[in-house]
Design a protein that fits this description.
189 residues; mainly alpha; globular; two-stranded antiparallel sheet; 2% strand
Amino acid sequence: MRVKSRWRAKDKERSLEEVAGAVGFIAWRIGANGCLHLENEGFQTDTQLQRLDVVSEFTAFAIHLTDRLTIERLTLEQRHEFMTALALKCAKHYHDSKVENAGPGNYQQEFIDLLNERMEAYAEFAFVDSEPSFNMRRYFGDRVTDVMGPKDRKWVTQQVMDIEAPEVIETLAKALRNLMPPDDETPRS
């Protein structure tokens, strides 16, 4: 998947919030493209709200991967600031999409609750050499399967584990390399 992940003004210093905003946009795009790819492969979704559930699972996985990929680059305070800004940016995308499909409401907390559940669950799985473990990918696949339609349910988890998860990891890792300052430069708050 191709996403724009380079700053226009390369020499300009970026705040953690600005980086989180860009990563949040990319995480949401990863989710939308993941859902679209599943549909293009013949997997069934029936409603826009169901698609939004699929996008949310992909986005939560991408957010967790972001935390794992950046944990050694940020201080505890920076990590808190960055991850909070990232979660809020994605919650805003979720809210806007949900309003468009379900009508007025305050939906950000729904996404934050889902994200908190997923972050806690994903934290139990190994992450070695910038790669999620088999069990983490399986859990991700099972969560997507849970929100997909009944057609071909038995194949969704395998598709997500073998095809979608590696694409998420590759796209996200590239974006973080391009958007985050080099390791020897500490991002400003």
